[in-house]
């Protein structure tokens, strides 16, 4: 289905995940984060989001343990950055499915 995010039309699935990760950009990420109650993305947020996108591009299957061993953030910090389901919310903000 189509959804307007940050003034841009993007395709999303029924759960709101973008179906085309190449349509993602910083404005879309910021808007999705705000919808999820994260009103400001710090540099640490961006570091995690970019790391997640790089992992998916390399074909790596994501899980919380891998994020915790990324060297960017530990698991506790990941939960603090993306409360209420860190991998789910971070993936959604990163434009990943």
Keywords:
mainly alpha, two-stranded antiparallel sheet, 97 residues, globular, 5 helices
Topology:
Blueprint: E1 2-5, E2 8-11, H1 26-35, H2 43-57, H3 64-68, H4 75-81, H5 86-93
Helix pairs in contact: 1-5
Question: Can you give a write-up of this model?
Answer:
By secondary structure, this protein is mainly alpha-helical. A hairpin with a 2-residue loop joins strand 1 and strand 2. Helix 1 packs antiparallel against helix 5.
Instruction: For the record, give the distance between the C-alpha atoms at the N and C termini, rounded to a whole number.
Output: 14 Å
Residue windows where pLDDT falls under 50 for at least 5 positions? none
C-alpha-based Rg, rounded: 13 Å
* Beta-strand segment tally: 2
Helical proportion, percent range? 40-55%
Query: Which of globular, elongated, flat, extended, rod-shaped describes the shape?
Result: globular
* Beta-strand percentage range: 5-15%
Number of helices: 5
Mean pLDDT across all residues, rounded? 96
Q: Helix and strand string, N-terminal first?
A: EEHHHHH
Short structural description:
Helices cover 46% and strands 8% of the residues. The chain is built from five helices and two strands; from the N terminus they run E-E-H-H-H-H-H.
């Amino acid at each position: 289905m189509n959804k307007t995010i940050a003034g841009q039309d993007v395709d999303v699935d029924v759960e709101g995940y973008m179906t085309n990760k190449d349509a993602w950009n910083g404005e879309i990420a910021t808007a999705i984060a705000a919808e999820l109650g994260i009103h400001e993305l710090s540099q640490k947020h961006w570091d995690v989001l970019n790391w997640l996108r790089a992992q998916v591009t390399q074909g790596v299957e994501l899980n919380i343990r891998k994020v915790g061993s990324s060297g960017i953030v530990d698991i506790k910090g990941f939960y603090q950055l993306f409360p209420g389901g860190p991998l789910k919310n971070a993936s959604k903000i990163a434009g990943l499915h």
